[in-house]
Amino acid sequence: NERRAKYKRVLLKLSGEALSGDQDFGIDPKVLDRMALEIGQLVGIGVQVGLVIGGGNLFRGAALHAAGMERVTGDHMGMLATVMNALAMRDSLERSNIRSRVMSAIPMSGVVEHYDRRTAIRYLTGGDVVIFSAGTGNPFFTTDSAACLRGIEIDADVVVKATKVDGVYDKDPVKHPDAVRYERLSYDQVLDQKLGVMDLTAICLVRDHEMPVRVFDTNKPGALLNLVVGSDEGTLIDK
Ligand code: UDP
Question: Which InterPro entries does this chain map to (predicted)?
Fold first, then answer.
């Protein structure tokens, strides 16, 4: 292990959208396998990895509600979607010989374990990747909030959020070629400038508990490992 990790325990948040690859819906096994490899690189240098996966590639409560469904029912479907993504991710990890566990905030006996903080920490300490599914278990929350919550609960050194661009910009870099990337931001800057990195609930949670967040590009090979060994990848948000 010639590369030494800067962080001992990380909470990685992957959006559901990332899992569908070039499609608008569903799961692309090729994407999962690539992410499994990247996660395996972290495990390989001794980093403990907790994972929160979104569900936006399958269902989002807000979108279902906009189409006429009751919001809470839509959110329940969204949370169940994250469990499906978690099962697919575990499958990929296990095929790459990376030991992993899925825990769910909603009890689902016979499918996945019910979330228990102390058990999760025990698994992490033993080197297993722990996938925290079903978000926070409550409607009206997002998996970004779930990632921040679990990150704080398991005492992670950092919450790492994978996005489609390599950090936080002053404006949408896809629409504006002159957009400038921030290397570092304070929680208050994110809030004051309404930068929309994560929803307000998530930002307030990490701010209150001084949990650093790093935003990086999922599609950049090696970016995750770089970040964990301490290079200035993406954008760092802290106090
Ligand atoms: N969700 C929820 N409570 C949570 C986390 C998620 O109700 O604590 C629901 C919500 O409907 C959300 C969906 O699950 O739209 C999928 O999660 P999210 O939108 O955060 O996924 P991502 O955008 O990361 O793919």
Answer: AceGlu_kinase-like_sf, Asp/Glu/Uridylate_kinase, Uridylate_kinase, Uridylate_kinase_bac
pLDDT at 132: 99
Ligand 1 atom nearest to CA at 63? 15
Residue 7 among known ligand-binding residues:
no
Taking CA atoms, 172 is separated from 65, 80, 116, 127, in Å, by 26, 31, 38, 38
Average pLDDT on 62-70 reads 98
Q: Whose CA is nearest to atom 22 of ligand 1?
A: 54
Residue among 135, 133, 123, 124 at smallest CA distance from 102: 133
In this prediction the pTM is 0.97
Superfamily of domain 9-238: Acetylglutamate kinase-like (3.40.1160.10)
Tell me the average pLDDT of the chain: 96
Ligand 1 pocket residues where CB is under 6 Å: 15-17, 54-56, 60-62, 74-75, 78-79, 81-82, 135-136, 138-139, 141-144, 146
What are the residue boundaries of the structural domains of the chain, listed by start? 9-238
Spatial separation of the C-alpha atoms in residues 195 and 13, rounded to whole Å? 18
Asked if residue 25 belongs to a known ligand binding site, the reply is no
Higher pLDDT, 2 or 143: 143
